[in-house]
Each structure stands twice: as C-alpha cells, then as structure tokens.
C-alpha cells in the first residue's frame, strides 16, 4: 500500500496521550495510532451512510432536494466559535 507523509496539527494534550499509549503497546507508533483513528473514522462514516441509505430506502424515497439539504445541515458538524482573545 502506498503512503504519503503529511503534517497535521493536534492539541498538546492529545499528542501527550498518544505518546503515552505507544510504550504501553496500545499502538505501534504515533503514526500507527493516527492511521488507526483515521481508518476507524472512515469506517464509521461509511456505516452511517449505509444506515441512512437503508432508512431512506425503507421509507420509499431519498427526499426532495430541499429535504436533503436540510438533512445535510442537521447532520453537519457544528463549528465552534473561537474564544475571544484577551488583549494584554
């Protein structure tokens, strides 16, 4: 399997937690941990899409374009507001 090296940014506390797991043999490496997390996320998304498709097929239709747009908005991740920065 071909691979590509990328750069990601994670909060320090997440990196610390991942690094604690490597010596405990919970993951082979930091990269291995990230690969496993991405793989699981993609699998979960595919399972969710299949579940939605099954439910839509059971009801007889995927809905109108307006209904599908509404569903996409409802299921989309919510963006968090940035905390206002304090001026020194």
Explain what you see.
By secondary structure, the chain is mostly helical. The protein has a domain of 57 residues. The chain is 58% helix and 0% strand. The longest helix is centred in the middle third of the chain and has 30 residues.
CA gyration radius, whole angstroms: 19 Å
Shape: extended
| Overall average pLDDT | 85
Report strand %. Answer: under 5%
The oligomeric state is single chain
Structural class by SSE content:
mainly alpha
Tally of separate helices: 3
Number of strands: 0
Low-pLDDT windows of residues: none
Biggest sheet record: none
Gap between N and C termini, in Å? 50 Å
Instruction: Work out the helicity level.
Output: 55-70%
Query: Which series of helices and strands comes N to C?
Result: HHH
Q: What does this entry show, briefly?
A:
The protein is an all-alpha fold and 88 residues long.
Keywords:
58% helix; mainly alpha; 88 residues
SSE map:
Elements lengths: L11 H10 L8 H30 L5 H11 L13
């Amino acid at each position: 399997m071909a691979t590509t090296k990328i750069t990601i940014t994670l909060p320090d506390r997440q990196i610390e937690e991942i690094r604690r797991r490597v010596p405990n043999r919970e993951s082979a490496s930091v990269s291995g941990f990230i690969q496993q997390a991405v793989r699981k996320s993609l699998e979960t998304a595919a399972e969710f899409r299949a579940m939605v498709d099954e439910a839509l097929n059971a009801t007889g239709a995927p809905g109108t374009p307006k209904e599908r747009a509404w569903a996409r908005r409802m299921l989309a991740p919510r963006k968090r507001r940035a905390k206002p920065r304090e001026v020194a």
